[in-house]
């Protein structure tokens, strides 16, 4: 870093401005989640005589889901490092792991939703369950979109090689993936751990 | 491969796993005084979000990061206003609704 103030350094690098713009998007996404968190917190007691979190949540599945997301965040970071170092073998390996762990999470979540709906505890049962499905489902939709995005990025990497624009996009994907983990920490604590007490 | 970036991710994963395990322990067992469990879970969740920001999202106090940190502060402010404001307003609405509910029960 130069000794002069940052304002005199000239325009910021594309790397920095792209990451900044994507960061603003992520924050707006988190604000949207906060609205659904607030709705859930208000409606958590409104079970309309139906089942509550204590009867419905299975903490073993949730623990495995959490482990999947945390480790996939880790492998995503290592994949990003591999793309910066231009080591294709490690890049493919780590992002394949990221995809597999994310997909495992999604399968577990969908089977949990199917179990709830099968036990006639679907989103139309009570206000509590509507809020639950909206909040957890939105996170799941984000994970699904992220998996699709990851496929496109890896295909682009395979065709075009480790170019600068691709590493920026991978950097944005990593930000997205890690931010979803932060949302999951909130979900785990507020919805599952508090709800199953 | 001894690499600073990899070391940061590994430290982040270790801390995140530790905090998650602590959250499960607190929620399950009798580790904490029962009325203190929600506060304990909130503290652990905030700590883990901090760990994710620093080790995974690479937030720092460096000059390249000033704008990101300011945006984060603003985002946290808005999210806190949305959540706290909603809870506050809805709790008061419930309180204001109470008399009419009692009236309905009296009318039964």
Strand content of chain A: under 5%
Give me the strand/helix succession of chain B. HHH
Which class do the helix and strand fractions of chain A yield? mainly alpha
Spatial separation of the terminal alpha carbons of chain A: 51 Å
Report the strand count of chain A. 0
Question: Got a strand count of chain B?
Answer: 0
Low-confidence stretches of chain B: none
Distance between the termini of chain B: 75 Å
Radius of gyration of chain B: 21 Å
Quickly count the helices of chain B. Answer: 3
User: Mean of residue pLDDT of chain A?
Assistant: 92
Output mean pLDDT of chain B.
87
- Which two chains share the most extensive interface? A-B, 44 and 44 residues
The assigned structural class of chain B equals: mainly alpha
Helix content of chain B: over 70%
**Gross morphology of chain B:** flat
The major beta sheet of chain B can be summarized as:
none
Tell me the major beta sheet of chain A.
Answer: none
The arrangement of helices and strands of chain A along the chain is HHHHHH
What do these coordinates show?
The complex is a heterodimer of chains A (197) and B (108). Chain A is an all-alpha fold. Chain A has helices at residues 14-43, 53-56, 59-84, 88-118, 127-160, 164-195. The model of chain A has no long low-confidence stretch (mean pLDDT 92). By secondary structure, chain B is mostly helical. In chain B, 81% of the residues lie in helices and 0% in strands. Chain B contains three helices and no strands. In chain B, α1 (4-28) runs antiparallel to α2 (37-56). Chain B is flat and about 75 Å long. Classes of the chains: A mainly alpha (197), B mainly alpha (108). At the A-B interface, α1, α3 and α6 of A face α1, α2 and α3 of B.
């Amino acid at each position: 870093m130069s000794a002069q103030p940052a304002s005199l350094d000239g325009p910021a690098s594309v790397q920095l401005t792209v990451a900044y713009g994507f960061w603003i998007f992520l924050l707006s996404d988190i604000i949207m989640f906060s609205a659904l968190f607030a709705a859930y917190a208000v409606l958590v007691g409104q079970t309309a005589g139906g089942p509550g979190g204590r009867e419905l949540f299975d903490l073993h599945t949730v623990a495995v889901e959490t482990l999947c997301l945390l480790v996939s965040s880790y492998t995503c970071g290592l994949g990003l490092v591999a793309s910066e170092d231009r080591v294709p073998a490690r890049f493919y390996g780590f992002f394949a792991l990221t995809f597999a762990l994310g997909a495992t999470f999604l399968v577990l979540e969908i089977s949990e939703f199917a179990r709830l709906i099968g036990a006639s505890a679907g989103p139309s049962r009570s206000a509590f369950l509507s809020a639950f499905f909206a909040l957890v489902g939105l996170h799941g939709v984000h994970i699904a979109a992220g998996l699709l995005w990851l496929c496109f990025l890896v295909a682009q990497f395979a065709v075009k090689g480790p170019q600068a624009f691709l590493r920026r996009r991978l950097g944005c994907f990593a930000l997205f993936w890690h931010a979803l983990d932060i949302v999951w920490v909130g979900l785990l604590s507020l919805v599952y751990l508090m709800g199953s007490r | 491969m001894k690499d600073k970036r990899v070391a940061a991710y590994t430290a982040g994963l270790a801390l995140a796993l530790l905090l998650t395990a602590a959250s499960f322990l607190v929620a399950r067992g009798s580790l904490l005084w029962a009325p203190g469990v929600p506060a304990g879970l909130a503290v652990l969740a905030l700590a883990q979000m901090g760990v994710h920001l620093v080790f995974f999202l690479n937030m720092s106090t460096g000059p390249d990061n000033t704008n990101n940190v300011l945006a984060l502060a603003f985002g946290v402010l808005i999210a806190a206003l949305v959540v706290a404001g909603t809870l506050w307003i809805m709790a008061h609405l419930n309180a204001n609704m109470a008399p009419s509910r009692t009236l309905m029960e009296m009318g039964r």
